[in-house]
Amino acid sequence: MLSDAVLSAVIERAQAEGKPVIADPKSVRFERYRGVRLLTPNQHEIAAATGLACEGDGAAAEAGLSVVRSCGIPAVLVTRGERGMTLVQSGEDPLHLPAEAREVFDVSGAGDTVVATLAVMLAAGADLPEAARLANLAAGIVVGKFGTALVHPADLAAAVHARTVTASSDAKITTLAAALERVAFWRGRGERIGFTNGCFDLIHPGHVSLLQQARAACDRLIVGLNTDASVRRQKGPDRPVQDETKRAVVLAALGAVDLVVPFEEDTPIDMIKAIRPDLLVKGADYRLDQVVGASFVQGYGGRVMLVPLVPDNSTTGTIARIGRGAG
Predict the structure, then answer these.
(1) Which of 128, 186, 265, 312 has the fewest Cβ atoms surrounding its Cβ within 10 A?
(2) Based on the domain organization, do 77 and 101 belong to the same domain?
(3) Do residues 152 and 182 share a domain?
(4) Are the C-beta atoms of 94 and 86 separated by less than 8 Å?
């Protein structure tokens, strides 16, 4: 059905209407698709069309660039099975996306899923790299199902959330110097900065409640985290139970937390003075005059909030119960 005449007529009409065209080529004559916004060959199709091997990232990018240059197509997305995808755009560095599938049950319909997701994303206003990333994620979902399965919105939303948590957790753990750059950016957008601190050893519902209440009262929440050496000086040689890396990773995985900044000192006063938070948060087991940095924050008009505690939740109590159980 898609003869040269039909293809050219469809592409010309779409261009006249300002509509992008995505083509999944089934011909080795890629010049037939001149004028489309994006071509999505698999590695075997582009190898047959260009005569170039398409095994590694560099070879895939070279083959894609050859099509961009010779066919007047601004972008080529090479789907490469278990090797993922390679996006080549005119004037841009290649983007290599590793395969997202953890288990592959059936590859039927994966290419159609990629094209459909790309189309929806571009229609929604996404740029091409963003659309390609989501299409890659959708393909990873569909090959993990049996038969020509669907990728439901809930499937994709869950995958995006899981990937975002994994990717963003490491980025949330940072130094004070890097945190101050983020604070300056957030303040430039008019956002209110909150700060709390603690050991956060064996995170429990009380910790989660405090962090959620703190985040609800500000736009960005920074958590100062005592390092292992700092915890030992305050709580003894048997603490912390979890080392600072593990504690930081768990905190960073929480949606209420925007940054985790470890500190070596006994108190976070230097960090508070550097950040100058709009909101300082501690648990209600502290009196206002016991909160480190409270007078400093109030001195420039900031707010100090004491959050009600969740009953029967403490790390010390949890450790004691574990000890009694072991005995």
Answers:
(1) 312
(2) yes
(3) no
(4) yes
pTM of the shown model: 0.53
Per-residue pLDDT tens over the stretch 80-94: 888 889 999 988 899
pLDDT band with cut points at 50, 70 and 90 for residue 327: very low
Could you say which of 110, 136, 169 is where a domain stops?
169
Domain count of the chain? 2
> 9-55, pLDDT tens digit by residue?
999 999 999 999 999 998 899 999 999 999 999 999 999 999 998 88
Same domain, 127 and 218: no
Residues 116, 210 within the same domain: no
Q: Per-residue DSSP letters for 133-199? A: HHHHHHHHHHTTSSSS----HHHHHHHHHHHHHHHHHHHHB--HHHHHHHHHHHHHTTPPEEEEEE-
Which residues are the active-site residues? 112
* pLDDT of 255 higher than 70: yes
For residue 190, what are the contacts with CB-CB under 8 A and spacing of at least 6?
none
